[in-house]
Specification:
The chain has about 325 residues and is an alpha/beta fold. It has 2 domains: about 240 residues, Rossmann fold (3-Layer(aba) Sandwich); about 70 residues, no CATH class. The chain contains 10 helices and 12 strands. An 8-stranded mixed β-sheet has the order 6-7-8-3-9-10-12-11, sandwiched between helices. Helix 5 crosses helix 6 and helix 6 runs parallel beside helix 7.
């Protein structure tokens, strides 16, 4: 096993049963045969539009929700076959930053109590707690005076820093950052991005960074996964994908980004998105793809091109 490999996900599925009749059952696939790896000391970006399954993947690999099928390996061990001791260790070594700190921070608890809670759960010596908590809040870019405040007394950016402090308080190896910048203004977004990069470099931290914003993910991630309807469209080095997209969906996403200057607006050619009938067992992007042909009515295989994986007939 590669010592740098932290997570290996193989054909991961999460589906929900839909009742369409007394004798007929259909399934909605939130995550559909997804495979990827997470390495130590890297930020892996996961990008896609709302409803594509990004947050579901983050929760699946932390075992916050149960998978339907597939395998998840953490440090070479099947996540669903861990002993109680291994499970406890896994919980200590992994964490999550939720999208909205207003709902993820208890409004009745002071910041100190919020940060202390994980330490109590994992039975960290009481004498060490204040030292760990003060270090965490300072590493998250706030001073120790914030520990006596309540969440409602903080700005959105400050609350998100508290959420990050809570995520790192146990010094984890891996964090799922679930759209941590989506509720923030642009200047605060940049501060949070720089903070996550700093923590990654200083602590050899691995991060699954979930977002719908290509500008954000381009500034922070080492590798990138493009997701659509629970399926991976494209996967590879972030710079390669953003500069030379191969999948039609990735091209549409990048083309939808605003131009850097108004004078360039007319120079930008947007692929013409189409809408057609969704056909069962076809490429999941068939119903919107501007380049679709009859062969796209059959699901394509994943193709490997110079280290990049692409789910398309045309590459």
């Amino acid at each position: 096993m590669d010592d740098n490999l932290l997570f290996e996900i193989r054909n991961l599925e999460k589906r929900y049963k839909i009742d369409v009749g007394l004798f007929k059952k259909e399934y909605f696939y939130a995550v559909n045969k997804v495979s990827f790896k997470v390495f130590r000391n890297e930020i892996l970006g996961l990008v896609g539009e709302s409803g594509s399954g990004k947050s579901t993947i983050g929760r699946l690999i932390l075992k916050l929700i149960k998978k339907t099928d597939g395998d998840i390996y953490y440090k070479g061990k099947d996540l669903y076959k861990l002993t109680k001791l291994e499970e406890k260790k896994f919980r200590k070594e992994t964490s999550i930053i939720f999208q909205d700190p207003r709902s993820s921070l208890n409004p009745r608890m002071k910041i100190y109590e919020i940060l202390e809670e994980p330490l109590i759960v994992h039975k960290i010596d009481k004498k060490l707690r204040r030292y760990i908590i003060e270090n965490s809040i300072i590493n998250a870019g706030l001073d120790t005076t914030f520990l006596e405040k309540y969440p409602f007394e903080l700005s959105g950016g400050q609350r998100q820093r508290v959420a990050i402090a809570r995520a790192i308080v146990l010094n984890p190896d891996f964090i799922v950052a679930d759209e941590p910048t989506s509720a923030l203004d642009v200047s605060t977004q940049l501060q949070i991005i720089n903070l996550i990069k700093k923590l990654k470099n200083e602590n050899s931290l691995s991060v699954l960074f979930i977002t719908h914003d290509l500008n954000v993910v381009g500034n922070i991630s080492d590798r990138l996964i493009v997701l659509y309807r629970g399926k991976i469209m494209e996967k590879g080095n972030t710079t390669d994908i953003l500069n030379y997209p191969l999948h039609p969906y990735t091209k549409l996403l990048i083309a939808s980004l605003p131009v850097s200057h108004p004078k360039d607006r007319n120079k930008k050619e947007l692929p013409k998105e189409v809408f057609r009938e969704d056909i069962q067992n076809s490429c999941v992007f068939y119903h919107r793809c501007p380049y679709a042909e009859d062969r796209c009515k059959v699901e394509p295989d994943i193709k490997n091109i110079n280290g990049r994986e692409v789910y398309c007939h045309f590459v």
